[in-house]
Amino acid sequence: MTDLLDFVALSLLPSWYGVPAAARLRDGDPPGVVLEELAEHAARHEPDRASTLRAEAAAAIRRGSAAAMTPVAWSDPAYPVALTTIADPPPVLWIRGQIDALGAPSVAIVGSRAASPYGLSVAAQLAGDLAACGLVIVSGLARGVDSAAHRGALAEAGVTVAVLGSGVDTIYPPEHAPLAREIEKNGAVISELVPGTPPLPMFFPRRNRIISGLSRAVVVIEASEKSGSLITARCALEQGRDVLAVPGNVLSGRNRGAHGLLRDGAKIVESADDILDELGMGAGVRPPRAEGGPAPTPHPTLNPDVVLECLTPGEPSDLDEISERSGLNSARLLPRLFDLELQGLVRRVGGGRFVRIDRTC
């Protein structure tokens, strides 16, 4: 409980403390120590700032509990490993729904809030086809492409995750509250912001790094030159994720951002098979699923043995260490580690680390 309190308090610091906080936590410093030092730096005129932040954090935890929200701190094994690889992971994620949804292979679909019927149709079709293959669809619950992607996944009884730019108890836009409730049944609605946080404009660019950070690839649909979706694409590139884009009408102006991505080397998407191929999952894969149940997760056709050999029983390793030993970047490591976890050969521990399970005893 003490660690959770300190992690929530860390999340209340100004956003520019995210990178130094993450660096200290990765070095093994306790969250309480990191909080004390950063709080002192942030408010030199307020010597007891850490205590104030802890009091605010305790109140946030109480509000979250009353609203059926689950806080998952960075040190929790349930914290999504993919997020631990970005420069400034959220110290805490607030979740409504199924925490397990955050650990499955995911693809983000983002785009225009004022999408054309074509854009909405493409978003729903791609999301549905990918969800039918067991991939989790990540988006931002916004009007337009985001909501179409969520609904496309739900239409296939798939799993989808909505990342908010407000507290999880403050759905924005308000008319998407019923959609959020549908998402929670098999997926999750999440935020790094404490309960009760309003949807202020400054929060939405920040949440985009979470959308891309959770995902193995980001697909952009109908992004103009000033679209917020391009922020997500830029975050994805910085995080080592794949960026793909759907071509569109050259006359409307609403596709210039996406076409710019294509000129810069993003892969063109005409169907879900293009995305599956980019992820190394094989085109045309459509595994069966149980009647009324969520889509199963297909295993990428990758040999995980090389990763297993890089792990020692009883000695946790983080992604940087495994990457150095295996020669694979994090985008390629994550699906292999996920496959090993499903086979019972690897276990996740706190802080985005993995440990090999000794099967000899």
The proportion of strand residues reads 5-15%
> First CA to last CA: what distance?
33 Å
Please write the CATH class name of the largest domain: Alpha Beta
Low-confidence residue ranges: 283-302
For the record, the CATH architecture of the largest domain stands as: 3-Layer(aba) Sandwich
In DSSP terms (H or I, runs of 4 or more residues), the helix count works out at: 15
The counted number of beta strands is: 12
- Report the helical percentage: 40-55%
Overall mean pLDDT score?
Answer: 86
Instruction: State the CATH topology of the largest domain.
Output: Rossmann fold
The radius of gyration over CA amounts to 20 Å
Order of helices and strands: HHHHEHEEHEHEHEHEHEHEHHEHHEE
Global morphology: globular
| Helix vs. strand class | alpha/beta
Q: How are the strands of the biggest sheet laid out side by side?
A: 1-2-6-5-4-3-7-8-9
Largest sheet: 9 strands, mixed
Q: Write down the domain tally.
A: 3
